[in-house]
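User: Sequence in, structure out. Go.
Assistant: Echoing your sequence, followed by the structure tokens.
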Amino acid sequence: MPHTGCSEFFEISSPYERCVVRTALSLFIVAGLAVSLAACSPAATPEAEETTAACTPTPSGALSDGVTVSGDFGTKPTVEVASPVSAEETQRTVAIEGDGDQAVQGDIVDVEFTLYSAETGAELSATEYADAPTQFEIDETKFLAGIAKTLDCSTVGSRLVGVIPPADSWGETGSTELGVAATDSIVFVADVLSIEPPVADKAWGEDQEPVEGFPAVELAEDGTPTLTIPKTDPPKELGIEVLKKGDGDVVADGATVTVHYIGVNWTSGETFDSSWARGEPAAFATTGVIEGFGTGLVGQTVGSQVVIVIPPDLGYGPAGGSPDAGIAADDTIVFVVDILATS
């Protein structure tokens, strides 16, 4: 798979570099650590307002209060950690108090962040602070528990400091790639940019007539697609077919998208990647994926389902293929993509 400097902190999976912090080291998005969807949160219902009022944030402590953070919100901060620091429980300090909506359990938030070693104070990883934030769901079962505890009850416009013990990060395994030992705490500094509205679980657009020569697509009740590759040579050029035409926003070049997708090798007919199989959509920037995949999404509308046939020169050919996924340098690949959100 193509690499953009992600470490074991992230899971790398085609067609993009998906770096997501998860308990199982399998969910921390990146294409530069990217992700986002809309610039505003859904209108609050009375029930939601009641939940917000009852939100209890993770307490601050001497360790999180002791992290010195300076710089404007939305820009990369200057951070000093009085290392070595060792936490027993996650502590959370609000360095900048935002006045936006409050994020609660189950919400998806867009953040820019920097991660530090609490043992040495060294920076471990960071987003680019350049309109490509990372998306986190506030759910301890999907991300490192300390990340969720830091972000829970935060308000849009806030900068948060989380000092996270091993039990709420990588536990007994540590992170060899990042140089985090099993006994090391970490420091997470995050700017909360926005809260995302709920995302649909599949494309909802109006059905379109299939295009001759494209793979046939059948959908299960839950929306999972199955592809049948034609018994013909693959096309030499990028091919894009719209199977469902959505009525949502247009995907701009460089935008972040949330999608469900399945990837199939035209030559072998084998599926090499599937967000459906993982049970959750993926989010990434159109500029952080293989060229044909990003090009196939730009200009499409949210709610659409598209088939993208990608020749080798716009896929994994320039990288010499992707042996781990069974993709040779001269293989054409096909994606069926449900576009669920963009920002």
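User: And one key feature?
Assistant: The chain has two domains: 46-196, 206-342.
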